[in-house]
């Protein structure tokens, strides 16, 4: 059972309070959306969960193991994987090599052959077989995002944090990223997705967290959060809220509520 | 098929290098250039592993080389073997011999030692091993200190370290010989018998084979490393440290390790080369020398070990052959100076027009040419099937 406990996380950068007592839990294979205006502290929170920066106070436990004191590589091995806002494919390494990095880091004694076999399964899942020997730099922005997701499959974490997975991506590739998330989620992985794409995040998320000025101002069902006055005032705005019924008609061609 | 062909080519080149002394025995000068070329090839390729593969643009490589050379030299200066105890030095009993540490105490002890006591300089190998260990220790230390430094800061830090080593070696005249240098025993002080032939201590053939073996051994080791998970991880670190760490790569371990390993390889080259030359001076640490190694790697191709090595060998030979001055009418062109200008021009042109080096593109063609065609063919198939799918869908 996946269990992430984020307890009273605070982070100061000099005089700036980037996060102020953020507390939430993820239990089981949830699909959690994390939204908030620019500067709300979303990326800072992600970096703390990942171990890139240390919290000023508070704790983070993943499956009973404290991870906020661990270095990033240890957090990754403990079961938390992430992507970055700006795509970070290894540009001068081939697609296959990109996939092998997390697998080899995780399985120190496994043979390269067995890991390559697993990489080919991921390549098939991403329909990237034809790009196996291409360098990361030769892929399009959207393909690089998919490659990052593929690397996470090789890492096989319990919780996956995606920072702006849909930003600047062609609609066709967006569909594939959407499919990736729903498929992998159905396989039992939890997701925390940061996005400014309101249509997609409301459609995709089972639960929504809203950060504003470093504080968690809402945590709950997307439909409830959508009408939360604090969220409307801080982030969505009245126009967005009024337009809410149409938002489910996303250009992804999906309507979660209709599907349900 | 392509791979077999490549291995065949490597085997032929190795055989030619092994057989070369047979045809060049009468040209000690040529043999000397070959030995120096192998020395630089080891340095350029190991620097390529550090800077090209791991992205650690260090200027301390020649300092590690010098640490290896001086450690070997100081071992020869301060450690001796005797068949009687000195009573004045710190000494260890080894069977019927004594391992004596210290030079001045040995001089004092000579008076009280029995007549006929033999004092030997130790053979080169233990000094070389000590040099490699010292190179590794300093590499580890610098690797830890520069963990958080990148690009310009790393370069400046390592220049600073290199200068400290050079100035210390210059200043400590009593220990290191200062600017006059430190003398080392030849690799084979009594000559050597090989395949029934005797080679004198000054013969170039034995050191040629020693340096060739070190070069081939270092290349094989580095290629093995580059092809292992170690190589994959250091390249991932070069590309993006944060992303590599987020994928489970232990950044600290691999950054420190790559410094230590490449420092050990440079130190081994330095220790062997110093024994071959017979004297080592702090001038080997001048920034010009480090620049030469960097330029060799850049011209050969920074991201390929063999490219950097071939670059080093070609440039070393070219620089030597360009020494011959000539006249244009009444004007005498002093090539001892002008050759460096040509070399600088070649470096500038390489950086401007072929920033992957001159050798690397050829290697890419040999090793990835088929892959590119294969990928293009697969892309065509994928595109065609997508188009067919669209047409069917429309139909």
Q: What is the correct CATH architecture of the largest domain in chain B?
A: Orthogonal Bundle
Total number of helical segments of chain B?
15
CATH topology of the largest domain in chain B: ABC transporter involved in vitamin B12 uptake, BtuC
What structural class do helix, strand and pairing data of chain B support? alpha+beta
What fraction of residues of chain A sit in β-strands? 15-25%
Number of strands of chain B: 10
CATH architecture of chain A: 3-Layer(aba) Sandwich
Radius of gyration of chain A: 18 Å
Into which percent range does the helicity of residues of chain A fall? 40-55%
Shape verdict of chain A: globular
Tell me what the structure shows.
The complex is a heterodimer of chains A (260) and B (395). Chain A is α/β, with parallel strands linked by helices. Helix content of chain A is 42%, strand content 23%. Chain A has one domain (3-259): Rossmann fold, CATH 3.40.50.300. Chain A contains eleven helices and ten strands. The longest helix of chain A has 16 residues, at 171-186. Chain A starts with a strand and ends with a helix. Residues 242-260 of chain A have low confidence and may be disordered. Chain B has 15 helices and ten strands. Chains A and B meet through α2 and α3 of A and α9, α10 and α15 of B.
Summary, kept brief:
The complex is a heterodimer of chains A (260) and B (395). Chain A is α/β, with parallel strands linked by helices.
Task: Please give the structural blueprint.
The complex is a heterodimer of chains A (260) and B (395).
Chain A: E1 3-13, E2 16-27, E3 31-35, H1 42-50, E4 57-62, E5 65-66, H2 72-78, E6 80-82, H3 95-106, H4 112-126, H5 141-155, E7 159-163, H6 171-186, E8 190-194, H7 198-204, E9 207-212, E10 215-220, H8 222-226, H9 229-242, H10 244-247, H11 256-259
Parallel strand pairs in A: 3-8, 3-9, 6-7, 7-8
Antiparallel strand pairs in A: 1-2, 1-4, 4-5, 9-10
Helix pairs in contact in A: 3-4, 3-5, 4-5, 5-6
Chain B: H1 2-24, H2 28-53, H3 61-78, E1 79-82, E2 90-94, E3 97-101, H4 104-110, E4 119-120, H5 124-145, H6 151-171, H7 173-176, E5 182-183, E6 192-194, E7 197-199, H8 205-227, H9 229-239, H10 241-246, H11 251-277, E8 279-280, H12 287-300, H13 305-321, E9 326-328, E10 331-333, H14 335-353, H15 360-394
Antiparallel strand pairs in B: 1-3, 1-4, 2-3, 5-8, 6-7, 9-10
């Amino acid at each position: 059972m996946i269990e992430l406990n984020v307890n009273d996380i605070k982070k100061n950068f000099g005089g700036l309070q980037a996060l102020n007592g953020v507390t939430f839990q993820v239990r089981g294979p949830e699909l959690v959306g994390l939204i908030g205006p620019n500067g709300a502290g979303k990326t800072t929170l992600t970096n703390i969960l990942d171990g890139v920066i240390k919290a000023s106070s508070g704790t983070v436990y993943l499956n009973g193991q404290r991870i906020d004191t661990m270095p990033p590589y240890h957090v990754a091995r403990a079961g938390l994987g992430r992507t970055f806002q700006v795509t970070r494919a290894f540009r001068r390494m081939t697609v296959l090599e990109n996939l092998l990095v997390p697998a080899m880091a995780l399985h120190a004694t496994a043979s390269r052959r067995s890991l390559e076999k697993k990489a080919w399964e991921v390549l098939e899942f991403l329909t990237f077989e034809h790009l196996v020997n291409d360098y990361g730099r030769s892929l399009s922005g959207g393909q690089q995002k998919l490659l990052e997701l593929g690397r996470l499959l090789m890492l096989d974490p319990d919780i996956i944090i995606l920072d702006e997975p849909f930003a600047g991506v062609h609609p066709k590739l967006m569909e594939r990223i959407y499919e990736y998330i729903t498929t992998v989620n159905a396989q039992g992985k939890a997701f925390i997705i940061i996005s400014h794409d309101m249509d997609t995040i409301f459609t995709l998320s089972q639960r929504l967290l809203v950060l504003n000025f470093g504080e968690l101002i809402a945590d709950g069902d997307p439909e409830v959060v959508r009408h939360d006055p604090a969220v409307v005032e801080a982030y969505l705005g009245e126009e967005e809220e009024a337009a809410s019924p149409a938002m489910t008609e996303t250009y992804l061609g999906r309507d979660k509520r209709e599907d349900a | 098929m392509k791979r077999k062909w490549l291995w065949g080519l490597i085997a032929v080149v190795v055989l030619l290098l092994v057989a070369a002394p047979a045809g060049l025995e009468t040209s000690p000068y040529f043999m000397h250039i070959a030995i120096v070329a192998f020395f630089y090839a080891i340095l350029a390729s190991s620097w390529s592993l550090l800077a090209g593969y791991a992205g650690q643009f260090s200027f301390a490589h020649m300092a590690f080389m010098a640490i290896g050379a001086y450690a070997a030299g100081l071992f020869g200066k301060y450690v001796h073997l005797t068949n009687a105890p000195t009573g004045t030095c710190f000494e260890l009993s080894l069977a019927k011999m004594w391992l004596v540490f210290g030079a001045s105490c040995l001089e004092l002890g000579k008076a009280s030692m029995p007549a006929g006591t033999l004092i030997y300089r130790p053979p080169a190998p233990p000094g070389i091993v000590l040099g490699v260990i010292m190179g590794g220790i300093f590499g580890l230390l610098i690797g830890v200190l520069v963990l958080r430094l990148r690009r310009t800061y790393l370069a400046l830090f390592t220049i600073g370290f290199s200068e400290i080593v050079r100035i210390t070696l210059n200043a400590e005249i009593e220990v290191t010989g200062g600017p006059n240098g430190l003398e080392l025993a030849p690799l084979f002080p009594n000559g050597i018998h090989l395949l029934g032939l005797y080679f004198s201590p000054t013969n170039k053939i034995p050191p040629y084979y020693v340096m060739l073996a070190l070069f081939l051994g270092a290349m094989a080791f580095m290629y093995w490393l580059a092809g292992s998970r170690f190589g994959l991880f250091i390249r991932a670190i070069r590309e993006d440290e944060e992303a590599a760490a987020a994928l489970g790569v232990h950044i600290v371990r691999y950054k420190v390790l790559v410094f230590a390993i490449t420092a050990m390889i440079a130190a081994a080259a330095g220790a062997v080369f110093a024994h071959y030359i017979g004297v080592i001076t702090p001038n080997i640490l001048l920034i010009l020398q480090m620049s030469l190694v960097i330029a060799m790697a850049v011209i050969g191709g920074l991201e390929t070990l063999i490219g950097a090595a071939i670059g080093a060998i070609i440039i070393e030979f070219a620089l030597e052959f360009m020494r011959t001055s000539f006249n244009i009418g009444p004007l005498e062109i002093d090539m001892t100076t002008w050759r460096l200008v040509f070399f600088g021009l070649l470096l500038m042109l390489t950086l401007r027009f072929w920033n992957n080096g001159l050798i690397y593109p050829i290697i890419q063609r040999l090793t990835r040419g088929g892959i590119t065609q294969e990928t293009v063919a697969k892309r065509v198939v994928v595109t065609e099937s997508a188009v067919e799918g669209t047409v069917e869908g429309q139909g």
